[in-house]
Specification:
By secondary structure, the chain is α+β, with helices and mostly antiparallel strands. The two termini are about 20 Å apart. Belongs to the copine family.
Length: about 575
């Protein structure tokens, strides 16, 4: 829920303060603009207009407007914009501050400035507060806009409770009863929706059910005083379960059991009407009741968790398709990995047959994958410095094969400034190294894992992006490295480029079968693999291709981060007070 507060707006009125905003006509249209106010005229109205960029295009659509505030250069707006947040998408926002914005189509002379920002930048900023300069009026300082984002509370608490019963009615002819409980949440229209069933406890009138967990929103939809109805049944094999009785309560009443036992009478309305001496059909006792908060990805980001992004790019010779090499037999290639040896023209990045080839009109698949993922993750990294490595190339000056060389040629500090810095270093490396081989993943995975192991308190989480053509040479070592890394605060994204088959990558992904190495299983699923070719837009729209790719490869990161925090019982830090 982003809120906005412009500060120190450009004063463009002659006789009073500028009022960014507008007035509504009776028809509800926004009309006209005044750049100066005459003495004695009624004050104009302040407003901020939010536009949202359509994913994969350059089109902006108006999302909403704040309320109007009169005659101030520092308006504080109450109305909030409620947006759906997706970590895996680049959600670009534009805040326009019109000067008396009587028209939705105001020109440069009609507004006090605008600010462009990604929603992820606001959420990833300290305490969810981001101040941006307003721009758009040449030669003028337009002031700033303060954006605040907070996650809407959706009753994320989870309840664990245990119940038992005493002296329930006997329903079975040859035995006692096989009781179970059914919980119902009441709806606004007076109906009830089933929300939980306990297990069946066989042949007893005094059952003790196992503790169970249920989200508060499922139990009462966040309304602590809403009725919760509980029916008690005797289980029958044919499904015609016998009704024993019922009782009603509420979340608020149940929560009192945190300090004391609560006993409910189980009543059968039909028996109560028929039998004058009817008391009840037994009792149910709430033995325990506890509440825990279910933390979200945003809770950790707002609490200061930083995402540290590392890039590893495949510089092996298999990225070039060589018809001469591929035409011979494996023994004639002189190449132990059965691929082009990199000495022919096809293996050169300057040739269109290379997967590293970037034409004057479009980026290579490697560069597209890097931008698609990096431009989203960088919003959650405060210093915007990203270690970037290459692997599988002969590196100057001695021409030795390296599986972990810094793209910026700085061994002491391999970090690049922003995604543009990574791209620049990548393109520079293509001009200085020789594509070679083999394709080894383990060294760079172990490098990032070593860094991740230094801080495991939840304040840092590492994301390694590996972009490769998919022909892996050190499968056993890579599996061992991933299994070890699965206990650390890190995730691995693998993007496969080119036409190769990616069976090995699918195994590393571990979605179907948990990855294992030498009898040891991965503690968590930390690998996400996607083939880039599945996301290429048929019309050649690279922006749309990148948006599609990022959406899928980043979709699992929030859950992977949460799984690490849960296994380590790490709770989000409270944001510093303002």
């Amino acid at each position: 829920t982003p809120g906005s507060s412009p500060r120190n707006l450009l004063d463009m009125d002659t006789f009073s303060k500028s009022d960014p905003g507008g007035w509504r006509s009776r028809a509800g249209e926004w009309q006209g603009t005044d750049t100066a106010r005459q003495p004695g005229s009624a004050p104009l109205s302040a407003v901020v207009v939010l536009f949202v960029q359509v994913s994969g295009s350059s089109e902006w659509k108006e999302f909403g407007r704040t309320e109007v505030i009169d005659n101030t250069l520092n308006p504080d707006f109450v109305r909030k914009f409620v947006l759906d947040y997706y970590f895996e998408e680049k959600q670009n926002l534009r805040f326009d501050v019109p000067l008396g914005s009587h028209s939705a189509f105001f020109g440069a002379q009609d507004f006090l400035g605008q600010a462009f920002v990604a929603l992820g930048e606001v959420i990833g900023s300290q305490r969810g507060r981001l101040e941006r300069p307003l721009t758009g009026v040449p030669g003028k300082r337009c002031g700033t806009i303060l954006l605040l984002a907070e996650e809407l509370s959706n009753c994320r608490d989870i309840v664990t409770m245990q119940l038992c019963a005493n002296k329930l009615d006997k329903k079975d002819f040859f035995g006692k009863s096989d009781p179970f409980l059914v919980f119902y949440r009441s709806n606004e229209d007076g109906t009830f929706t089933i929300c939980h069933k306990t297990e069946v406890v066989k042949n007893t009138l005094n059952p003790v059910w196992q503790p169970f967990t249920i989200p508060v929103r499922a139990l009462c939809n966040g309304d602590y005083d809403r009725t919760v109805k509980i029916d008690v049944y005797d289980w029958d094999r044919d499904g015609s379960h016998d009704f024993i009785g019922e009782f009603a309560t509420s979340y608020r009443e149940l929560s009192r059991a945190q300090s004391q036992f609560t006993v409910y009478e189980v009543l059968n309305p039909r028996k109560k009407c028929k039998k004058k001496k009817y008391v009840n059909s037994g009792t149910v006792t709430l033995l325990s009741f506890s509440v825990e908060s279910e933390f979200t990805f945003v809770d950790y980001i707002r609490g200061g968790t930083q995402l540290n992004f590392t890039v590893a790019i495949d510089f092996t010779a298999s990225n070039g398709e060589c018809t001469w090499c591929l035409g011979g037999s494996p023994s004639s290639w002189g190449w132990p990995w059965g691929r082009c040896n990199g000495h022919c023209a096809a293996g050169l990045p300057s040739q269109p047959t290379s997967l590293h080839y970037a034409s004057p009109y479009q980026l290579s698949a490697y560069a597209l994958a890097l931008k698609a993922v990096g431009e989203i993750i960088q919003d959650y990294d405060s210093d915007k410095l990203f270690p970037a490595y290459g692997f599988g190339a002969k590196v100057p000056p001695d021409g030795k094969i390296s599986h972990q060389f810094p793209l910026n040629n700085n061994v002491e500090n391999p970090s690049c400034a922003g995604i543009e810095g990574v791209l620049e270093s990548y393109l520079q490396s293509l001009r200085t190294v020789q594509l070679y081989g083999p394709t080894n993943f383990a060294p760079v995975i172990n490098q990032v894992a070593g860094t991740a192991a230094q801080v495991t308190d939840g304040s840092q989480y590492h994301v390694l992006l590996i972009i490769t053509d998919g022909v892996i040479s050190d499968m056993l070592q890579t599996k061992e490295a991933i299994v070890t890394a699965s206990s650390l605060p890190m995730s691995i994204i693998i993007v496969g480029v080119g036409p190769a088959e990616f069976e090995a990558m699918e195994e590393l992904d571990g979605d179907e079968v948990r990855l294992s190495s030498r009898g040891r299983y991965a503690e968590r699923d930390i690998v996400q693999f996607v083939p880039f070719r599945d996301y290429v837009d048929d019309s050649g729209n690279q922006v749309l291709s990148m948006a599609r790719l990022a959406k899928d490869v980043l979709a699992e990161i929030p859950e992977q981060l949460l799984s690490y925090m849960k296994t380590r019982d790490i709770k989000p830090r409270r944001a510093d007070p303002e």
